Amino acid sequence: MIPTEILKKIRRIQIRTRHMVNDVFAGRYHSAFRGQGMEFHEVREYVPGDDIRAIDWNVTARLGHPYIKKFIEERELSVMLMVDISASNEFGNALRMKKDLAAEIAAVLAFSAIQNNDRVGLILFTDQVELYIPPRKGTRHVLRVVREVLYFQPENRKTRLTPALDFLNHVTHRKTVTFLISDFFFPDDYRRLLGVTARRHDLISIIVGDKREQKWPEIGILEWEDAETGHRYLVDTSDPKAAKALMKTQEDRRRSILETLRSAEIDAIEVYTDEPYERAFIKFFRTREQRLRWS
After folding, report:
1. String of b and e for 185-213 (b: at least 16 CB within 10 Å)?
2. The domain containing residue 45 runs over which residues?
3. Distance between alpha carbon 31 and the CA centroid of its chain, in Å?
4. How would DSSP label each residue in 98-125?
5. Neighbours of 142 (CB within 10 A)
6. Is residue 60 located within the same domain as residue 199?
7. What kind and span of H or E run contains 221?
8. Side by side, which strands form the sheet with 202-209?
9. 284 partner at 20 to 30 Å CA-CA among 55, 206, 215, 229?
10. 3-state SS, residue 162
11. What pLDDT sits at residue 237?
12. Same domain, 190 and 288
């Protein structure tokens, strides 16, 4: 039995994301992602200026004057949401935690996909694949996907990316548009498999963060606990050297992640719990539209 609070949260997300899908992302999602190829639509009479390579010679011979084949884009896509539900995502601020932001973004993408008649699937992972929902269509299916992102309780708290990537590559036989939603706190070396996955699928990374991971509040000595390992640390948050070291460590980490993604030719979208994420997605859609226009 799903708690009433979770059901209310699902409903709130559905209402909140409806505006995003209908007004903010309207048309952009469709333009940013191509279908699996071109399929035959019809033949029509040749007119001057048409590409002669499109002439249907069989129909032309039968009817005595030239006809050309018309093709349309095969729009239907399979969209896979890979969502990191390890314990490091249970961090945030008074507004929301990283896992809540991840759930809302997953909802926006899922509803955008079904509005375009695409199928949506889900992979929830920690250091193993915790849940897999095969891609399907329909609002009820998407509501189930959102419910699982919000409500599912993982067996493990740690995280690794390689098992999830390996699972995706084995369970999907066709190319998918895959959104990897995570804070990218991965201890394993995922670079090689990330590159393999990016060649098989249209892989987009969504890096979920919280600004307090880069700069903690100056409130004296605090005991921090690593949510995934349980290790505890005493930190003097008022020490300028400690604060500077944290900022440098996190910035180095961020640069390393972005460089890894760039080298694998994977788009990266950075979002934060205390900032609107619409701008980051609109910028991504625009960049992708321009790239497709020139490809």
Report:
1. bbeeebeebbbebbeebbbbbbbbbbeeb
2. 37-74
3. 16
4. HHHHHHHHHHHHHHHHHHTT-EEEEEEE
5. 23
6. no
7. strand 221-225
8. 129-136, 119-125, 78-84, 177-182, 202-209, 267-272
9. 215
10. helix
11. 78
12. yes
Phi, psi of 276, rounded to the nearest 5 degrees: -65, 135
**Residue of 125, 148, 143, 123 whose CA lies nearest to 134:** 123
- Report the domain count for the chain: 2
CATH code where residue 193 lies: 3.40.50.410
Q: Output the pLDDT for position 82.
A: 98
Instruction: Give the CA-trace dihedral at 88, 94, 96, 99, to 10 degrees.
Output: 10
Number of H helices, E strands in the chain: 9, 10
φ and ψ at 260, to 5 degrees?
Answer: -60, -45
Question: In this structure, what token pair is assigned to residue 63?
Answer: 């009817």
Identify residue 89 by its one-letter amino acid code: N
pTM of the model: 0.81
Per-residue confidence band for 24, with pLDDT thresholds at 50, 70 and 90: low
Residue 157: φ, ψ to 5°:
-110, -25
Residue 179 CA to residue 11 CA, distance in Å, equals 23
Indicate if 50 and 194 belong to the same structural domain: no
